[in-house]
Model the fold of this input.
Amino acid sequence: AIWDFRAAAEERIFGFDKALAGQPLSDYRLTAAETLVTRLRAGLGDNLLGLSEQAQITALGWARLIRRSKDAAAMIEQQSQDGAAGGDKKPSSPFRLITSD
Done:
């Protein structure tokens, strides 16, 4: 059963990669990749151990792009909220000079 899952997973990875045909991983392609990577990680763990190296590198590359996309979206959302809340307010520094009285 494990070998069947691995073979099916690799077939899905390589089929998806072929369907991308060099197009950027964005919009609906990004959503589809995220769904596939989530399913793969549910079955194989975060590192996708058990896949061939080629399949592992391909799928983990998608996972990295998905994470970057989410991070960028969160940053844009935060900037949007900051701008709406206080105009051009400067962010406070995490480092403060501590003085004693």
Observations:
- The CA atoms of residues 14 and 55 lie 7 Å apart.
- Residues 53-86 form the longest helix (34 residues).
- The chain has a mean pLDDT of 85.
- The radius of gyration is 20 Å.
